[in-house]
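Researcher: We're teaching a course module on how sequence relates to structure. For the next exercise, students receive a sequence and then see the predicted structure as tokens, so they can try to spot secondary structure elements on their own. Here is the exercise chain.
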Amino acid sequence: QVQVVESGGGLVQAGGSLRLSCAASGRTFSRYAMGWFRQAPGKEREFVAAISWSGRIYYADSVKGRFTISRDNAKNTVYLQMNSLKPEDTAVYYCNLNGPQDYWGQGTQVTVSS
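Model: And here is the predicted structure for the students to work with:
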């Protein structure tokens, strides 16, 4: 059974940093892209960042220059280093594995206070 577990969320002041982790297990994730989405209260879920199996990286314009995504294929883990956080980054952050099937984590709350 596939499990996708995020960790690393929390409360931080504006300008601070957090590092999210997402560990996947239960099958082989070769050729799967791994990424992050977020959903703020009253808003739709939006794309944040993604990294392909080969390491190609994509960012939403709103996080470019502040967030860094990386992955460890041996550990089926993806990371999101978030720096210079802003109150508008407050959301539940979801890990996504995109391939022949789509897998989602349960989400981790990130709250940035002003």
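Model: If you want an answer key for the exercise: The mean pLDDT is 96. The chain has no helices and eleven strands.
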